[in-house]
Amino acid sequence: MATQEGITGPREPMSDPAIVVKNLTVTFGSRSVLNDVSFEVPRGTTLCVLGLSGVGKSTLLRCMVGLQKLTSGEIFINNRNISTMKPKDLDLLRKRVGMAFQKAALFDSMTVGENVAFGLREHTKLPEEDIQRIVAEKLAIVDLEGMDHLYPSQISGGMQKRASFARTVATDPDVVLYDEPTSGLDPIISTVINELILELQHRLGATSVVVTHDLAGAMMVAHNIIMLHEGKVVFSGPPKEFASTDNPYIKQFREGSSK
Known about the structure:
Layout: E1 5-6, E2 9-10, E3 19-28, E4 31-41, E5 46-50, H1 57-64, E6 72-77, E7 80-81, H2 87-94, E8 97-100, H3 112-123, H4 128-141, H5 157-168, E9 175-179, H6 187-204, E10 207-211, H7 215-221, E11 224-229, E12 232-237, H8 239-244, H9 248-255
Parallel strand pairs: 5-10, 5-11, 8-9, 9-10
Antiparallel strand pairs: 1-2, 3-4, 3-6, 6-7, 11-12
Protein backbone atom coordinates (compact mmCIF):
# COMPACT_ATOMS: atom_id res chain seq x y z
CA MET A 1 0.00 0.00 0.00
CA ALA A 2 1.48 3.33 -1.03
CA THR A 3 2.09 6.07 1.51
CA GLN A 4 0.68 9.58 1.21
CA GLU A 5 2.64 12.77 1.66
CA GLY A 6 1.58 14.96 4.56
CA ILE A 7 2.75 18.17 6.19
CA THR A 8 5.08 16.22 8.49
CA GLY A 9 6.38 13.93 5.73
CA PRO A 10 5.24 10.54 4.39
CA ARG A 11 2.09 9.30 6.06
CA GLU A 12 1.53 5.76 7.19
CA PRO A 13 -0.74 3.80 4.83
CA MET A 14 -4.33 4.62 5.72
CA SER A 15 -6.62 1.75 6.61
CA ASP A 16 -10.15 1.04 7.76
CA PRO A 17 -10.67 0.62 10.64
CA ALA A 18 -8.15 3.31 11.57
CA ILE A 19 -7.83 2.07 15.17
CA VAL A 20 -8.11 -1.47 16.51
CA VAL A 21 -7.71 -2.26 20.22
CA LYS A 22 -7.50 -5.98 21.02
CA ASN A 23 -7.72 -7.45 24.54
CA LEU A 24 -5.94 -4.48 26.11
CA THR A 25 -4.99 -4.95 29.75
CA VAL A 26 -3.02 -2.50 31.87
CA THR A 27 -2.13 -3.20 35.49
CA PHE A 28 -0.31 -1.10 38.06
CA GLY A 29 1.00 -3.53 40.66
CA SER A 30 -1.96 -5.62 41.76
CA ARG A 31 -4.50 -3.09 40.43
CA SER A 32 -6.06 -3.70 37.03
CA VAL A 33 -6.86 -0.35 35.37
CA LEU A 34 -7.95 -1.74 31.98
CA ASN A 35 -9.11 -5.31 31.68
CA ASP A 36 -9.45 -7.05 28.30
CA VAL A 37 -10.66 -3.94 26.45
CA SER A 38 -11.43 -4.39 22.73
CA PHE A 39 -12.98 -2.06 20.14
CA GLU A 40 -12.52 -0.65 16.64
CA VAL A 41 -12.84 2.89 15.28
CA PRO A 42 -13.77 3.12 11.58
CA ARG A 43 -11.82 5.69 9.61
CA GLY A 44 -13.33 9.16 9.63
CA THR A 45 -15.62 8.53 12.60
CA THR A 46 -15.69 9.79 16.19
CA LEU A 47 -15.69 7.42 19.16
CA CYS A 48 -16.57 8.76 22.61
CA VAL A 49 -15.26 6.93 25.67
CA LEU A 50 -17.45 7.45 28.73
CA GLY A 51 -17.11 6.35 32.33
CA LEU A 52 -16.73 7.57 35.88
CA SER A 53 -13.45 8.99 37.15
CA GLY A 54 -10.71 6.42 37.62
CA VAL A 55 -12.01 3.79 35.20
CA GLY A 56 -8.99 4.05 32.89
CA LYS A 57 -10.15 6.47 30.18
CA SER A 58 -7.04 8.65 30.15
CA THR A 59 -4.82 5.57 30.51
CA LEU A 60 -6.45 4.26 27.35
CA LEU A 61 -5.49 7.44 25.47
CA ARG A 62 -1.90 7.21 26.70
CA CYS A 63 -1.75 3.62 25.48
CA MET A 64 -2.94 4.72 22.04
CA VAL A 65 0.05 7.04 21.59
CA GLY A 66 2.59 4.69 23.10
CA LEU A 67 3.06 6.67 26.32
CA GLN A 68 1.79 3.86 28.54
CA LYS A 69 3.16 0.32 28.37
CA LEU A 70 0.57 -2.40 27.84
CA THR A 71 0.51 -5.33 30.25
CA SER A 72 -1.04 -7.42 27.48
CA GLY A 73 -3.05 -6.98 24.29
CA GLU A 74 -2.46 -5.02 21.09
CA ILE A 75 -3.25 -1.61 19.60
CA PHE A 76 -3.16 -1.04 15.85
CA ILE A 77 -3.23 2.37 14.17
CA ASN A 78 -3.37 2.20 10.37
CA ASN A 79 -2.62 -1.53 10.61
CA ARG A 80 0.58 -0.87 12.59
CA ASN A 81 0.97 -2.56 15.96
CA ILE A 82 2.25 0.30 18.11
CA SER A 83 3.34 -1.99 20.97
CA THR A 84 5.91 -3.71 18.74
CA MET A 85 7.10 -0.69 16.75
CA LYS A 86 10.67 0.51 16.99
CA PRO A 87 11.04 3.91 18.74
CA LYS A 88 11.94 5.64 15.47
CA ASP A 89 8.85 4.26 13.70
CA LEU A 90 6.65 5.10 16.69
CA ASP A 91 7.90 8.70 16.61
CA LEU A 92 6.94 8.91 12.92
CA LEU A 93 3.48 7.54 13.63
CA ARG A 94 2.96 10.00 16.51
CA LYS A 95 3.37 12.84 14.05
CA ARG A 96 0.16 11.61 12.43
CA VAL A 97 -1.70 11.54 15.76
CA GLY A 98 -2.83 14.80 17.40
CA MET A 99 -3.67 14.96 21.09
CA ALA A 100 -5.66 17.72 22.79
CA PHE A 101 -4.94 17.69 26.50
CA GLN A 102 -7.45 18.21 29.29
CA LYS A 103 -5.99 21.54 30.44
CA ALA A 104 -5.08 23.00 27.03
CA ALA A 105 -1.35 22.69 27.94
CA LEU A 106 -0.35 25.78 25.99
CA PHE A 107 3.16 27.13 26.49
CA ASP A 108 2.72 30.24 28.64
CA SER A 109 5.87 31.90 27.29
CA MET A 110 4.68 31.61 23.68
CA THR A 111 1.96 33.55 21.90
CA VAL A 112 -1.10 31.77 20.59
CA GLY A 113 0.40 31.83 17.10
CA GLU A 114 3.73 30.44 18.32
CA ASN A 115 1.88 27.64 20.15
CA VAL A 116 0.01 26.65 16.99
CA ALA A 117 3.23 26.80 14.96
CA PHE A 118 5.21 24.71 17.46
CA GLY A 119 4.66 21.29 15.86
CA LEU A 120 5.20 22.68 12.38
CA ARG A 121 8.56 24.14 13.38
CA GLU A 122 9.60 21.02 15.30
CA HIS A 123 8.59 18.38 12.76
CA THR A 124 8.73 20.00 9.33
CA LYS A 125 11.09 22.01 7.17
CA LEU A 126 8.37 24.28 5.87
CA PRO A 127 9.36 27.88 5.11
CA GLU A 128 8.14 30.47 7.60
CA GLU A 129 5.70 31.86 5.04
CA ASP A 130 3.91 28.51 4.82
CA ILE A 131 3.92 28.08 8.59
CA GLN A 132 2.29 31.47 9.07
CA ARG A 133 -0.33 30.62 6.43
CA ILE A 134 -1.19 27.32 8.14
CA VAL A 135 -1.34 29.00 11.57
CA ALA A 136 -3.76 31.61 10.21
CA GLU A 137 -5.91 28.89 8.61
CA LYS A 138 -6.14 26.82 11.80
CA LEU A 139 -6.88 29.83 13.99
CA ALA A 140 -9.64 30.82 11.58
CA ILE A 141 -11.19 27.35 11.89
CA VAL A 142 -11.39 27.74 15.69
CA ASP A 143 -12.64 31.35 15.43
CA LEU A 144 -9.46 32.93 16.81
CA GLU A 145 -8.54 35.04 13.82
CA GLY A 146 -6.23 37.94 14.63
CA MET A 147 -5.37 36.61 18.09
CA ASP A 148 -2.06 35.02 17.18
CA HIS A 149 -0.12 37.80 18.98
CA LEU A 150 -1.83 37.25 22.35
CA TYR A 151 -0.43 35.11 25.16
CA PRO A 152 -2.47 32.33 26.85
CA SER A 153 -2.86 34.47 29.99
CA GLN A 154 -4.60 37.13 27.90
CA ILE A 155 -7.44 34.90 26.65
CA SER A 156 -10.25 32.99 28.36
CA GLY A 157 -10.23 29.30 29.28
CA GLY A 158 -12.54 28.45 26.41
CA MET A 159 -10.33 30.34 23.97
CA GLN A 160 -7.30 28.49 25.33
CA LYS A 161 -9.07 25.21 24.58
CA ARG A 162 -9.73 26.36 21.02
CA ALA A 163 -6.10 27.44 20.59
CA SER A 164 -5.04 24.02 21.86
CA PHE A 165 -7.25 22.39 19.22
CA ALA A 166 -5.68 24.57 16.52
CA ARG A 167 -2.23 23.43 17.64
CA THR A 168 -3.36 19.80 17.72
CA VAL A 169 -4.62 19.83 14.12
CA ALA A 170 -1.97 22.14 12.65
CA THR A 171 -0.16 19.18 11.07
CA ASP A 172 -3.38 17.67 9.64
CA PRO A 173 -3.23 14.45 11.70
CA ASP A 174 -5.02 11.27 10.64
CA VAL A 175 -6.12 10.57 14.22
CA VAL A 176 -7.11 13.14 16.87
CA LEU A 177 -7.38 12.23 20.56
CA TYR A 178 -9.24 14.51 22.98
CA ASP A 179 -8.83 14.15 26.76
CA GLU A 180 -11.82 15.71 28.57
CA PRO A 181 -12.17 18.60 26.09
CA THR A 182 -15.02 20.30 27.99
CA SER A 183 -13.74 19.73 31.53
CA GLY A 184 -14.17 22.82 33.72
CA LEU A 185 -16.13 24.78 31.10
CA ASP A 186 -19.65 26.16 31.46
CA PRO A 187 -22.47 24.59 29.40
CA ILE A 188 -22.44 27.30 26.72
CA ILE A 189 -18.68 27.08 26.10
CA SER A 190 -18.91 23.27 26.28
CA THR A 191 -21.41 23.35 23.42
CA VAL A 192 -19.07 25.62 21.44
CA ILE A 193 -16.20 23.16 22.00
CA ASN A 194 -18.32 20.18 20.96
CA GLU A 195 -19.42 22.02 17.83
CA LEU A 196 -15.76 22.67 17.12
CA ILE A 197 -14.92 18.95 17.48
CA LEU A 198 -17.61 18.25 14.88
CA GLU A 199 -16.28 20.98 12.60
CA LEU A 200 -12.72 19.70 12.81
CA GLN A 201 -13.86 16.14 12.12
CA HIS A 202 -15.80 17.26 9.05
CA ARG A 203 -13.01 19.48 7.71
CA LEU A 204 -10.12 17.08 8.33
CA GLY A 205 -11.92 13.78 7.81
CA ALA A 206 -9.88 12.63 10.79
CA THR A 207 -10.62 9.68 13.03
CA SER A 208 -11.33 10.99 16.53
CA VAL A 209 -11.43 9.51 20.03
CA VAL A 210 -12.99 11.70 22.71
CA VAL A 211 -12.63 10.81 26.39
CA THR A 212 -15.29 12.70 28.31
CA HIS A 213 -17.70 12.91 31.25
CA ASP A 214 -19.92 15.17 29.15
CA LEU A 215 -22.89 12.98 28.21
CA ALA A 216 -24.65 15.70 26.20
CA GLY A 217 -21.43 16.36 24.28
CA ALA A 218 -20.94 12.67 23.56
CA MET A 219 -24.45 12.36 22.22
CA MET A 220 -23.73 15.36 19.99
CA VAL A 221 -20.38 14.36 18.46
CA ALA A 222 -20.16 10.55 18.60
CA HIS A 223 -20.77 8.07 15.83
CA ASN A 224 -20.20 5.35 18.45
CA ILE A 225 -19.83 5.20 22.22
CA ILE A 226 -18.07 2.81 24.54
CA MET A 227 -18.49 2.93 28.30
CA LEU A 228 -15.90 1.68 30.74
CA HIS A 229 -16.78 0.36 34.19
CA GLU A 230 -14.12 -1.05 36.50
CA GLY A 231 -11.73 -1.19 33.56
CA LYS A 232 -14.05 -3.20 31.30
CA VAL A 233 -16.22 -2.26 28.33
CA VAL A 234 -19.84 -2.55 29.48
CA PHE A 235 -21.36 -0.91 26.38
CA SER A 236 -20.38 -0.44 22.75
CA GLY A 237 -22.73 1.01 20.18
CA PRO A 238 -24.28 4.12 18.62
CA PRO A 239 -25.63 7.02 20.74
CA LYS A 240 -29.28 6.04 20.20
CA GLU A 241 -28.67 2.63 21.76
CA PHE A 242 -26.75 4.22 24.63
CA ALA A 243 -29.72 6.50 25.31
CA SER A 244 -32.19 3.61 25.45
CA THR A 245 -30.29 0.68 26.98
CA ASP A 246 -31.42 -0.74 30.32
CA ASN A 247 -27.85 -1.57 31.36
CA PRO A 248 -27.81 -0.57 35.06
CA TYR A 249 -24.36 1.06 34.91
CA ILE A 250 -25.41 3.18 31.95
CA LYS A 251 -28.75 4.12 33.48
CA GLN A 252 -26.92 5.28 36.59
CA PHE A 253 -24.51 7.32 34.46
CA ARG A 254 -27.31 8.84 32.36
CA GLU A 255 -29.38 9.77 35.41
CA GLY A 256 -26.45 10.98 37.52
CA SER A 257 -27.61 8.68 40.30
CA SER A 258 -25.38 7.52 43.17
CA LYS A 259 -27.23 4.18 43.30
